[in-house]
Specification:
- The complex is a heterotrimer of chains A (about 230), B (about 230) and C (about 250).
- Chain A has about 230 residues and is an all-alpha fold.
- Chain A contains eight helices and no strands.
- In chain A, helix 3 crosses helix 4, helix 4 crosses helix 6 and helix 6 runs antiparallel to helix 8.
- With about 230 residues, chain B is mainly alpha-helical.
- Chain B contains eleven helices and no strands.
- Chain C is α/β, with parallel strands linked by helices and about 250 residues long.
- Chain C is built from eleven helices and 13 strands.
- Classes of the chains: A mainly alpha (about 230), B mainly alpha (about 230), C alpha/beta (about 250).
- Chains in contact: A-B, A-C, B-C.
- The interface between A and C is small, with 11 and 9 residues.
Amino acid sequence: MENLILYAPLLARGTLVTVQLALASLLLATILGAFGAAGKIGDGGFARSAVFGYTTLVRGIPDLVLILLIYFGGQRLLSVLGGWFGFGYIDISKFWAGVIAIGFFYGAYLTETFRGAYMTIPRGQIEAARALGLKRFTILWKVTLPQLVRFAIAGYANVWQVLVKSTAVVSVISLQDLVGLANDAGKSVREPFTFFAAVFMIYLFFTFISQSIFNWLERRYTIKGRNDAA
Amino acid sequence: MQLNRIVENYDMFLQGAWMTMQLTGLALFFGFCIALPFGLARARRARFLSPLINVYVYAFRGTPLLVQLYLVYYGLAQFDVVKDSFAWPVLREAYWCALITFSLNSGAYATEIIRGAVETTPEGEIEAATALGLTRFQVARLVLIPSALRRALPQYGNEVVFMLHGSVVASVITIQDILGAGRTVNARHYLAYEGILTAAVLYMVLTLALVITFRWLENKYLRHLALAH
Amino acid sequence: MKRTLGAALLAATFATGAMADSLNICVEGAYPPFSYTEASGDVAGFDIDIANALCAEMGHDCSMLKTDWDGIIPALLEGKCDAIIASMSITPDRMEVIDFTTKYYNTPAAFIGAEGMTMEAMEAGVVGVQRGTIHQDFMEGEFPGVELRLYGSQDEAYLDLVAGRLDAVMADSVAMDDGFIKTEAGEGYAFFGESYSIPEYHGNGAGIGVRKGEEALRDAFSAAIAAIRESGEYAEINARYFDYDVYGG
């Protein structure tokens, strides 16, 4: 137990890396999800097939495989590109490889979440707005988005919870995140149980905090009795 | 891209695929065995059992599978009392550690799925069954459970895919599953990514097979809901 | 303005000139006592000391890049580093992909296990090796029936040995002696059986890996190795870690 206290600063540093990784990935995933949903909802045939390809491929593989692919394969890709364009070796840091991998991975899931939320908006509202002569941008901003956000909160919260747990897997490429540091520390003092138990509790804490925040958000943004499709 | 190396080692990938399917399948089976009674107990709000089960579900759903695996594989081996016990021959093996962890994990998710499905049973079905004079046990066996399982099918299909994907962490504790095979081939022939790419393709194939299977099952067992769409 | 620009350009040329003399060396940092990571995160050990000595001899500035063993050859091929100094054995398989200098040490491989372990017990049990090493090749070649476990690093294999998951570990005898047997964790464990040095599996010792085509660099390293053997600097570094000459015959 004393070892835990001794290594607390190290674990704190690891927790910070994990949190940063999770938030950065969430941002990337949200952006990709938004574009993906737009692509699938819109009229462009190419966009729709591209997004379909993206979501099907990404949802067909485990997160760890994508992380390894992006870390090792991405490095090779950058080298090849570097060869063509004449710039030398560019290093992909483990952190950014993790962010790109997890962001890309959950962007596919968020595409479905956002699309599902869009589908829940009663068609009639969009039609009415158009009949009123509102411009496309106004419709998007005043009618579609507020409701999309409301309907997407539950699904978004779900994806966030899974994303946070996925960050543990980035330790496999030796990123010095919470799991990675706990692994190293636990092994060097030969108390892996203590350290992993601490990591377990920290993740439980993340889960608890996230749930509370999203519950609050849901309460704030849902209107009593108006949450489901008309 | 050195695909010839992959082709040379196809047997390693096949063995890996078998290992993955084994682990996934058994974990789902044991998880289901845990989830059926637990889910029912939770839905009925059984007095002492329900909160305990809730703790189990919260713990296993709220933390990463990898951390759970590390706790069982590395963590338990730290204690001499474990090493001297009868459980050691089992816990010694990475395979069993993985299977136990995966089963408990899958069980937690499946418990929630079954609980949700049982709780949304239409009242009428239970009333009708009771009115027909069936005992509580018969109601459960003949009406409640089949009805709930049918409702749980889509979500359970998701859980099956998640378990398949989750099983990949077994390769981190020396198990030669699909990813393990990929990394070994990479290491042996100094490839950067070909082995991992092959692993990705294999997972996609398995996922596709599962998705098709569940679509077929849904068509078969949820046909009575088809008109609702 | 023109003078400062000129001075800046001149400085830039010297800077790039100086940079051309700096080398990135891939090291593992998980193979004590040849290569290990200190609490500060820096790598140290025999490999690192030799690398620094060679670089000084060649007049280069070297920086050590800690790389996972699994990705170390791809890293070299990609240009992340210019040389591998990570106790990498010179084997025909590897020579198909990269070039090696002459060896900088050669020590035999051996088995370790709990005290009292025998060859018969080992053959019936489970043996751990590091993935992608000559030791894996050796076990698969000479003891194909034995159950093998592959690990990303030597340290992980030691852990499972202590946990009781392995009956034996096969690796470099010196690495295991100083990196495990002589440490606190290694109490109760010892060598058993013979030591092995079969060129077919173990090659001709550990060399420095460079990309194919980098003949000048390779020869410069080889010359430097010979130079520090001559000057006695090798012996000095050797003495820091070992009681005997690891260069081998």
